[in-house]
Amino acid sequence: MYVCNCFGVTEAQVKKHAADGACTPRQIASACKAGTDCGSCVRRIQALLGRGACPRRDLVDQGEPAVALAPEAELPEAA
Prior knowledge:
Structural class: mainly alpha
Domain BFD-like [2Fe-2S]-binding: 2-50
Keywords: 2Fe-2S, Electron transport, Iron, Iron-sulfur, Metal-binding, Transport
Protein name: Bacterioferritin-associated ferredoxin
Strand order of the largest sheet: 1-2
InterPro entries: BFD-associated_ferredoxin (IPR052371), BFD-like_2Fe2S-bd_dom (IPR007419), BFD-like_2Fe2S-bd_dom_sf (IPR041854)
CATH class: Mainly Alpha
Shape: globular
Number of helices: 4
Distance between the termini: 42 Å
CATH superfamily: BFD-like [2Fe-2S]-binding domain
Low-confidence stretches: 63-75
GO molecular function, one term: metal ion binding
Number of strands: 2
Strand content: 5-15%
Oligomer: single chain
CATH topology: Arc Repressor Mutant, subunit A
CATH architecture: Orthogonal Bundle
Protein backbone atom coordinates (compact mmCIF):
# COMPACT_ATOMS: atom_id res chain seq x y z
CA MET A 1 0.00 0.00 0.00
CA TYR A 2 1.28 3.47 -0.88
CA VAL A 3 1.92 5.87 1.97
CA CYS A 4 3.21 8.74 -0.16
CA ASN A 5 1.60 9.07 -3.56
CA CYS A 6 3.78 12.04 -4.54
CA PHE A 7 6.98 9.97 -4.46
CA GLY A 8 5.55 6.45 -4.71
CA VAL A 9 6.75 5.39 -1.26
CA THR A 10 5.11 2.27 0.14
CA GLU A 11 4.34 1.25 3.70
CA ALA A 12 7.00 -1.46 3.40
CA GLN A 13 9.61 1.14 2.42
CA VAL A 14 8.74 3.33 5.42
CA LYS A 15 9.02 0.29 7.70
CA LYS A 16 12.39 -0.60 6.13
CA HIS A 17 13.73 2.92 6.73
CA ALA A 18 12.43 2.74 10.30
CA ALA A 19 14.20 -0.59 10.80
CA ASP A 20 17.36 1.09 9.51
CA GLY A 21 17.04 3.74 12.23
CA ALA A 22 14.76 6.49 10.89
CA CYS A 23 12.49 7.07 13.88
CA THR A 24 10.79 10.37 13.02
CA PRO A 25 8.83 11.61 10.01
CA ARG A 26 11.70 14.01 9.28
CA GLN A 27 14.20 11.14 9.19
CA ILE A 28 11.87 9.17 6.92
CA ALA A 29 11.67 12.24 4.66
CA SER A 30 15.46 12.42 4.53
CA ALA A 31 15.63 8.76 3.56
CA CYS A 32 12.98 8.69 0.81
CA LYS A 33 11.36 12.16 0.41
CA ALA A 34 8.00 10.91 1.74
CA GLY A 35 6.14 13.83 3.31
CA THR A 36 8.13 16.57 1.61
CA ASP A 37 5.72 17.52 -1.18
CA CYS A 38 2.01 17.86 -0.32
CA GLY A 39 2.40 16.56 3.26
CA SER A 40 -0.79 14.50 3.27
CA CYS A 41 1.14 11.34 4.21
CA VAL A 42 2.87 12.73 7.31
CA ARG A 43 0.13 11.55 9.68
CA ARG A 44 0.23 8.08 8.14
CA ILE A 45 4.02 8.00 8.59
CA GLN A 46 3.60 9.10 12.22
CA ALA A 47 1.08 6.31 12.73
CA LEU A 48 3.44 3.73 11.26
CA LEU A 49 6.29 4.90 13.46
CA GLY A 50 4.04 4.87 16.51
CA ARG A 51 3.15 1.23 15.98
CA GLY A 52 6.55 -0.20 16.77
CA ALA A 53 8.10 0.18 13.32
CA CYS A 54 11.07 1.94 14.92
CA PRO A 55 13.38 -0.52 16.71
CA ARG A 56 14.59 2.19 19.10
CA ARG A 57 11.09 3.37 20.07
CA ASP A 58 11.08 1.02 23.08
CA LEU A 59 14.24 2.68 24.41
CA VAL A 60 12.63 6.11 24.17
CA ASP A 61 9.49 4.82 25.88
CA GLN A 62 11.62 3.43 28.73
CA GLY A 63 13.32 6.78 29.33
CA GLU A 64 16.60 5.92 27.66
CA PRO A 65 18.29 8.92 26.04
CA ALA A 66 17.61 9.12 22.33
CA VAL A 67 20.48 9.65 19.92
CA ALA A 68 19.98 12.95 18.14
CA LEU A 69 21.10 13.36 14.57
CA ALA A 70 23.20 16.43 13.94
CA PRO A 71 21.92 18.82 11.29
CA GLU A 72 23.80 18.43 8.03
CA ALA A 73 25.31 21.92 8.36
CA GLU A 74 27.06 20.90 11.58
CA LEU A 75 28.67 17.73 10.28
CA PRO A 76 32.43 17.88 9.77
CA GLU A 77 33.51 18.06 6.17
CA ALA A 78 35.21 15.05 4.60
CA ALA A 79 38.90 15.46 3.91
